[in-house]
Amino acid sequence: MTGVKIVGVGHYAPERIVDNHDLEQWLDTSDEWITTRTGMKRRHWTSENEATSDLALAAARNALASAKLEPNDIDAYILCTVYPDYLFPATACIVASKLGARDKAAFDMEIACSGFIYGLTVASSMIRAGVYKRIVLIGAETLSKLVDRTDRGTAILFGDGAGAVVLEAAVEDSFLGSELGSDGSRPELLRVETGGSRLPVSHATLDRKADRIHMEGREVFKFAVTKMIEATDRALEKAHLQKSDVDVLIPHQANKRIIDAAMKYLEIPPERCVVNIQEYGNTSAASIPIALSEAVRDGRVKPGDVIVFVGFGGGLSWGAVVWKWAA
Ligand code: ACO
C-alpha cells in the first residue's frame, strides 16, 4: 500500500454569466427571493455549442498545468457527471483524447452531486492499492441544459462548470477517511425520468417535460442537512479526528442555508468553510473541485490542513472524505 496526494488543481466556468436579475426577465422570481432562499447571485451557463467535455477539458488542462505534468504522464482519467456528452461513449474518453493522452484508461462515474466525493474515494483507492500512479479526476456539469428554464423551482439553482484534481502516489497519505452512502428507495425526489431504459424518450415523455430535472426541493433540503452532518461525523471518526481538527470544510454548494445549518451543528465557524455558491450556483459534481481549486489558489488551503469534502445529491446519495493537504 502506498499513499496518495493531490498535486494539481484547476477549474473552468463558461463565459456567459446569468445573474438573478436576468432570471427575473422570464421567471416569476426575484433577486431577493433567490438570494435569501439559496445564497445564489450569479451562475455560469454554457452556450449552445459547449458540452460537458469542453468544460472538463479546460479544467483538466488547468489542473495538469498546475501539477506541471503532461497528459501522457497520467494513467487514468475519471470524469464525474450526470450530463455526459452522450449516453455512450464515456465523456472521459473524449476528454483524454482531446488532451492528447494516448491509450489511457478513461471512464465516467454518475452519482449526481456526490460524484466528486465518490470519485475521490475510488481514485484514491486505486492509487493506494498500487493499480495506478497518477489519476486526473474531474467533476463537470452542464445542468443549465438539463433544467426546464421555465420552472422557477429548479431553473434558478443550477450552473455549469468543471473542476479537476491530479492525484499522485505519495509516501505520506493524504486520504484519511471516507464515508459514502445511498438510499435509492425514492428516486422521484430528484431525477430526470426519461432517457434511460426504464422510460426511453418518446414524444409523450418530451411533451410532459420528463427529460428535465424534477426535484422535491423541501424533501431534498431536509435530507441534505442530516446527511451532511452524519457523513462528516462518520468520516472524521474513521480518520480518528474531531470536528475541532478540521481546518477547512468544502461542502457541495447546493444552498447556503443547507451549508449554514450543517456548519452550525458541526460547530465549524464560517471562516473555515469555503462558500462560492453566490458566483456559481449549484454545479453538481463540479462544485467541490471548483471550490477546492479557488481555495488553493487564494491561499485558504495550506500545507498540513485537514480538509473535509462533503456532499449529497441524487440517488439519493451522500458522502464525505477527510483529506490532509500535502506540502
Ligand atoms: N422564486 C420565487 N418563489 C419561489 C421560487 C422562486 N425561484 N421557487 C419556489 N418559490 C415559491 C414556492 O412556489 C412556494 O410558494 P407557496 O408558498 O406559495 O407554495 C414558496 O416559494 C416556498 O417554496 P419552498 O419550496 O418551500 O421553498 P424553499 O425555502 O424550500 O426553497 C429550494 C426552495 C431553494 C429549492 C430549497 O428547497 C432547496 O434548496 N432544496 C434543496 C435543493 C438541493 O439541494 N438540490 C440538490 C440537487 S443536486 C443533484 O443531485 C442534481
Determine the CATH topology of the largest domain.
Peroxisomal Thiolase, Chain A, domain 1
What percent of the residues sit in helical stretches (DSSP H or I)?
25-40%
N- and C-termini, Cα separation: 20 Å
Would you state the CATH class of the largest domain?
Alpha Beta
Which strands sit side by side, in order, in the main sheet? Answer: 1-7-6-4-5
Tell me which ligands are bound.
acetyl coenzyme *A
Query: What's the overall average pLDDT, rounded?
Result: 97
Largest sheet: 5 strands, mixed
Give a count of the beta strands, DSSP E runs of length 2 or more.
13
CATH architecture descriptor name of the largest domain: 3-Layer(aba) Sandwich
Would you identify the CATH H-level superfamily of the largest domain?
A: Thiolase/Chalcone synthase
Q: Structurally, how many domains make up the residues? A: 2
Shape: globular
Order of SSEs, N→C?
EEHHEHEHEHEHEEEHEHEHHHEE
- Rg value: 19 Å
